[in-house]
Amino acid sequence: MSTQNFDANTAKKHLTGLTASSDELFQLLLDPDVDYLQALLKNPQIGEDHLLILLKRRDLSAALINSLYKKQQPSLSHQLLLAVVKNPATSGALVRNLLPQLRLFELLDLCFLPGVTPDQKLAAERAVLQRLPTTPLGNKITLARRGTATIVGELLKEGQTQIFEACLGSPRLKEVAIYQFLREATASAETISLVARHNRWNQRPNLRLAILKNPKTPDIWFTLWLPKLHNHIIKQLLASYRSNSARKLLLKKEMKKRDIAGY
């Protein structure tokens, strides 16, 4: 086919697209030619239903989505805005511009959306974190149960009992986040006990040691776990309890008992 014929056919195709009816547009929006899709955006019959279908495609270009957004921006509905953000071809700059307009749990859903780009996930995650100071307790508890590892770890740091308990039950919570919390001043006797009682976490050696080293740990955990500790752990604890004479005394008594028993 000659270039002249090709150009003529392309022009004819674009003209057909520009004058297509609303019903015809639904089929035309399946065309793989991105340039042709750009032309379809100029059709006066194109509406939100068409654009929502178009934005479900995963083979669009950032330029096309930018054109779509600029054309619809004056009257962009929330549904259409969400569809733009969810498309993996949407540029990082546009995503960051639109994220403040999304609802809290829409941002969270974006973090787990199949096909979401790492940049989109990171931007959505940051947007959630920025809202945490003004997020109501009930929503924080839901975030603790459903959030990403980063979000759950950040909520854990608050040390609020209800939120903390929900965080401990999250499948995405990392041991290192709990370990770091147990070493911070925000750890309380109540939150420490929540970790000590939790079936998933209370057998972790690093967490047990962090609990036993914390001066706020209730004595009950010290009493229950002391007989099961290895000698080298007891020596570590003796070195860490510089100002807690009562606990040092218990540790020394335990060591003496083991000496007598032939340990």
Structural class: mainly alpha
Low-confidence stretches: 1-6
C-alpha termini separation: 92 Å
How would the global form be characterised?
rod-shaped
Query: What radius of gyration results from the CA coordinates?
Result: 29 Å
Please outline the major beta sheet: none
How many E-type strands?
0
The proportion of residues forming helix, as a percent range, comes to: 55-70%
The helix/strand series, from N terminus to C terminus, equals HHHHHHHHHHHHHHHHHH
Mean residue pLDDT: 91
Strand content: under 5%
Number of helices: 18
Tell me what the structure shows.
This protein has 263 residues and is mostly helical. It is 65% helix and 0% strand. α10 runs parallel beside α12, α11 packs antiparallel against α12 and α12 (161-168) packs parallel to α14. The longest helix has 17 residues, at 3-19. It is rod-shaped, with a radius of gyration of 29 Å. It starts with a helix and ends with a helix. The model is unreliable at 1-6 (pLDDT under 50).
